[in-house]
Amino acid sequence: MTNSWNDVQYTDCALIMGANPAENHPISFRWLTKAKENGGKIVSVDPRYTRTSAMSDIYASLRSGTDIPFMGGMIKYALDNNLYHKEYVAKYTNASFIVKDSYKFEDGLFSGYNAEKRAYDKTQWAIEKDAEGKPVKDFTLEHPRSVFQLMKKHYSRYDVDTVVKITGTPEDDLLKVYEAFCATGKVGKAGTIMYAMGTTQHTVGTQNVRAFAIIQLLLGNVGVPGGGINAMRGESNVQGSTDFGLLYGNLTGYLNAPTSTDKLNATLAGHLEKETPKTGYWSNKPKFIVSLLKAWYGPNATPENEFAYQYLPKGNKNYSHINLFKAMYDGKLEGAFLFGTNPVVGGPNAGKEKEALSNLKWLVAVDLWETETSAFWQKEAGSDPGKINTEVFLLPACSSYEKEGSVSNSARWMQYRWQAIKPLGESKADLEIIHELATKIKALYKNESGPAAAPINALYWNYGEGHHPDIDLVCKEINGYDVNTGKLIAGFGNLKDDGSTCSGNWIYCGFYPEEGKNRAKNRDKKDTGMSLYLNWSYAWPMNRRILYNRASCDPSGVPYNKEKAVVWYDAAKGKWTGVDIPDFVATRKPGDAGFEDPFIMMNDGVGGVFAPTLNDGPFPEHYEPYESPAKNPFSSQEINPTIQLFDGKFNERGFKADYPIVATTYRVSEHWQSGTMTRNQEWLSELVPHMYIEISEELAKEKGIKNKDKVIVSSARGEVKAYAMVTKRFKPHTIDGKKVHQIGMPWHFGYKGFATGDTANRLTPHIGDANTTIPEYKAFLCDVRRA
Amino acid sequence: MVEINLNRRQFLKLSGATAVTLAVVELGFNEKKAHASTKEFKIAKSTVTPTICCFCGVGCGILVHTKDNTVVYTEGDPDNPINEGKLCSKGTTIRQLYTSEKRIKKPLYRAPGSNKWEEKEWEWMYETIAKRTKETRDKTFVVSEDGMTVNKTEAIASLGGAALDNEETYLLSKMMRGLGVTYLEHQARI
Q: Measured between alpha carbons, how far is A228 from A217 in angstroms, rounded to an integer?
C-alpha cells in the first residue's frame, strides 16, 4: 500500500476492483464505512456481487480476465472528457517524455517482438535523451511521440462499445463507475484503488496493476491522503517476507539477486555498475548492497574479497513457483523446505504439485499442523505409501503469540508481537528452528575446505550461545550498525559502501536507531495528525506513512487540498513541515534541482505512465486469459504473447468447446488461504464446513441443478465435488452477443482438519503472468454437472 | 512485559477478586450485570499480552489473556489504531490456535516407503536434516558456469514464509542464500 488502512477514511471515492475487503479484510472496512460517512463513494467492480458490493454505492460486474478493457476504457473516458489533473500529469509523470520513433504498436504487438523467444527487445521503446542523458520533454503534451499522445492513441481503441462487448458489463454501470471515479481528477479530490489477487492472478496481472497506476497518475491520486494504489495483503507478513527477499529474484530490500546471464555480474564492481542508476534514490544502491554483504558475511566480507560477493548464488533462469514445481515434477529437485505453506491445496494445478512431491528424496515441513502437503504420501491423499520413497520431516512450529517478533502489515507498519505463553508441547519458534538448522549445517562443514564449504563457512551466524537465538541481535543486524563501534545506524542515509556499516535490509534501516529503541514496539496511540499515528509502530521507509507525499503539493510546495494536508513548504521559514515524514529530500529549496520531483525511487523523479521495463509492453493491452470463452476484439493476439508456456501432462489446456464456463476462485471470511490455520479450529470449521460453488440461477436451470445439490466441476486438469449454492450473486454475461456463464468457488479446502472438502486448485492451470509468473487462478474454463 | 494502556491495566486489576466481590454486593440481583461480572471473573488475574493477528495483512491488534499456563481469552486490542478493539471471525477465534487438539506437539518422521509417522527427538531431526541437506548440496553444488563463479545448488528448494515474523524471514533468507539455494519462493508469488 502507498497509504494506510486508517487513511482510507479521507477518500472521495474508493474503487475496489479484484478484491473483496468486506469479506477478506473485514476490519479495513470500518475505514471505508467512515469514508462513506464523510461523503465518499465506494465502487465495487467484480464478476460476483460480493459482500463488498453490498456495501458499495455503485456496483459493476465484469467477466473475469477483462480488467484491462475496463480500465483502458476509463483512461479513454478521463482523457476524452478532460477529467485528468493537468498540472500533475505534466509535471509529476512521464507523460511529457518523448519516446523514440522505434516504438510502434500494431495488431496487439509492440515493436521488437521475437515470436520464437516470446519476448520483446525493450530498447525499441526507449525514451529520447538529450546530450546530458536527460529525457527530452514537451510540457505542452502535444508532441505526437510524447507519452501522453501515444497513450491517447493506444486507448482510443478502448471505446465504450468494444469494452462492453468483451467485459459484459452493462453500459450504464460502466459509465457510472467511470463518472464517479474520474471525478477525483479534480484538483483537491482524492480517489483510492484497493485491489488484491483478483487483479494480480492473471496472465496480465502486472499490467492490470499498471492500468491502475496510469489512471491514478492521470487523476493526480498518488501521494495524497485518501488516494494511492493499495494492494491489500492476504497474509499477516507477506509484506515483510517479500521485503526480506523470499522470492528468487531479489535479496532483501528489493536488491536484485545477481544472475549469471549478465557478464557484468562476474564481479562486484560490474554488478554495482549494472544495478546503479545515475539519478534517483537508487543511485545509493552500492551502500545498500555492500552493507547487506557485511550483514551476511561479517568479518569474512572484506574490500579484498569483494565483500564476499562471490559467495552469493547466481541463478540463470526463472525459479518461480510454477517452474519450481516443474523442476520437481521432472525429478530435478532432491530436497525441499516448507515453512508454513501448503501447495497441495494452495498451488495451481494442485494435483500435479502433489504428484511432483513424490519425486523428492527428502522433504522438511515446518508447521503447526499436519497438512495435505506434508501428508501427501498417505492413503487418504490418494497415494500408495509403499511406492513413495520421500523421507518426510515434520517439525512442529508454535503459533504467533507463543514467540516474539515483528510483522509488517499491508501499510508497511512493522508491529511487534510479544510472547504471551510458552510454545505448546515441544513446538518451537521458526526463529529457533532456522537457527538450529543453520548452526547444525555449518557445523558439518566446519572442518572442510572444498568449494562447496567456502560459502557456508563464510556465512556470519552470530546470534548468541543458546539454542534459541537472541532476537535482539537479529533486529540489530537487520537495522544495521557501524561494524567497528557496534553503534546502531540512525537511518539508511547513513549506510556506507566501504564496508564500515552493515544492514541486513536497508529499507528497514532506521527502525532501531539507538540502543533500547526498537520502534516496532512503539505503542503511542495518539493521532499525530491526519490519522497517521507516527508513534504507533514503525513504517518503512523512515516511518513515512504516505509514499510519494511530495505529490500532495503543487510544484511550489502548496498542498492541493489544504483541508487534508500532510506536508507543505513553509516559505516564511524556508523549510518543509507537516504531519507526515517527507518522502523526498526535504532540505531542497525552491529553485534547487529536484525540488519539484515527487517520485524519489524513480530514476527521473516522476511517475511512470509509460513503463518501458515490463516484459509485455509499456502500456497495458488486453489479451484474453489462457483459457477463454471469447475472441479478443482488440487484436489477433488471443493470449499474452510473452507468457511462458507450460504444456504436456504438467499442464493440460482446456478449450471452450469442452469447458464453456468461466471459473474463478476466492476466499471466505471464516477460512484463511489453504485452510490449515482455520480448518483445524472447531468454531471456524463449524461456520463454513463444506466445499461449495456459487452458480447463477440461470446456469442452475440450464443444468438442472438445485440449491444444495452435489455437483462435479471439471476442467482439463481434474474434477472436484462440491455443493451447489444457487445464487443471484452471479449473472451470466453477454459477451459479443453470446451468453457466457461464470461460477466461483473458495479454494480453502482439503482432506485434513475438521472441515474437509475437495481442493479447488485441482482445477486451476499451471500458467502465469508475463512479469511475475503469478498463476492465473482467477480466470479458467470449466464445466459443471450434477453429481 | 510491555507497558500497555495503563487505564486498562488498572481496570483489569480492579476486576480481580476484591472488585468482583464488591460488585456482587453492590449489584444485588441485577441479572444482566451479574452475568457481566462473572465474565470478568474468568479473566481475572490473567496476564495480558498484546499481539497482532496472524491472518490477513490488515494487522489488527489482539490481547491474549493467559493464566495457569494456558490461553484463557483473547479480544481485540482497543489501543491499536487500526482495529480499535474490533475483530473479524478469524481474529476472534485466535485462542483455538493454542487449544486445538490438532496441533502437532512432537517432531514427526516418515521413513521412505512407510505408511506412518514416527515420533522423534528434535536433536535427531536436526542432525538428520542437516546431513541430508549437506549430501544433496555437495552432490549438486555448482561452483562456476561459463567461467563465472555462481556458487549455487539447484537441487534444493525453499517455499513459504508469509506467516513468519520479519526476524525469521531474515534468517531464512540469509540461510538459504548462504547455502546457494536458487529455488527460493513463498506465498507472495501464489
A: 9
Tell me how far CA of residue A350 lies from CA of A353, A376, A680, A745, in angstroms.
Answer: 5, 11, 20, 15
Tell me the chain B residues in contact with residue A438 when contact means C-beta distances shorter than 8 Å: 171, 175, 178
Q: How far is A538 from chain B (nearest CA, A)?
A: 13
Q: Do B166 and A237 touch (CB under 8 A)?
A: yes
- Amino acid type, A420: A
Give me the residues of B, 16-35, that contact A with CB < 8 A: none
Q: Above 0.95 for ipTM, yes or no?
A: yes
- Whether residue B57 contacts residue A236, with contact meaning beta carbons closer than 8 Å, is answered with yes
Chain B hits for A338, CB-CB cut-off 8 Å, are: 159-160
Q: What is the three-state SS of A183-238?
A: HHHCCCCCEEEEECHHHHCCCCHHHHHHHHHHHHHHCCCCCCCCCCEEECCCCCCH
| Number of inter-chain CB pairs under 8 A, A vs B | 488
pLDDT, averaged per 10 consecutive residues of chain B (190 residues), comes to 44 40 44 56 87 98 96 97 98 98 98 98 98 98 97 98 98 98 97
Dihedral sign for Cα A299, A305, A311, A317, please. positive
**Chain B: closest CA distance from residue A326 (Å):** 11
Distance between CA A97 and CA A122 in Å, rounded? 17
In the numeric block, the cell 446456469 is attached to A699
- Taking the CA of residue B85 and the nearest CA in chain A, the distance in Å comes to 10
Asked whether residue B23 is domain-assigned, the answer is no
Q: Which residue has the cell 523512515?
A: A542
* Cβ separation B162–A238 shorter than 8 A: yes
Q: Name residue, grid cell 472447531.
A: A682
Q: Which amino acid is at B156?
A: I
Please provide residue B75's backbone torsions phi and psi, each rounded to the nearest 5 degrees.
-155, 165
* Rounded distance between C-alpha atoms, residue A359 and residue A342, angstroms: 17
Does B6 contact A at CB distance below 8 Å? no
| CATH of the domain spanning A321-445 | 3.40.50.740
Measured between beta carbons, the chain B residues lying within 8 angstroms of A311 are: 151, 178
Total count of domains within chain B: 1
Provide the 8-state DSSP code for A398: P
| Residue in A239, A388, A426 nearest the CB of B122 | A426
Report domain extents, chain A: 6-231, 251-314+470-508, 321-445, 648-786
| DSSP label at residue A252 | G
B9 close contact with A: CB closer than 8 A: no
> Is B171 within a domain?
yes
Write the residue in B159, B171, B186 that is nearest to A435 by C-beta: B171
Cβ pair A401:B178 closer than 8 A: no
**Contacting B residues, span 114-173, partner chain A, CB-CB under 8 Å:** 114-115, 117, 122, 125-134, 136-141, 143, 145-173
d(CA A748, CA A746): 6
**Could you tell me the strand order of the sheet in which B70-76 lies?**
B47-52, B61-67, B70-76
User: Is the residue at B151 inside a domain?
Assistant: yes
The pLDDT tens digits of the residues spanning A322-331 come to: 999 999 999 9
- Which of A338, A401, A426 to mutate: most B Cβ within 10 Å? A401
Determine the distance in angstroms separating the CA of A677 from the nearest CA of chain B, rounded to an integer.
7
Q: What is the pLDDT of residues A125-140, one digit of tens each?
A: 999 999 999 999 999 9
* Architecture category of domain A648-786 in CATH: Beta Barrel (2.40)
Residue type, A570: D
Range of the domain at B153: 141-190
Report the distance separating Cα A397 and Cα A389, nearest Å: 25
Q: Give the CATH H-level superfamily of domain A6-231.
A: Dimethylsulfoxide Reductase, domain 2 (3.40.228.10)
* Average pLDDT of the residues in A182-192: 98
Q: Write out the three cell numbers for B157.
A: 528448494
**For chain B, what is the radius of gyration of the CA atoms?**
25
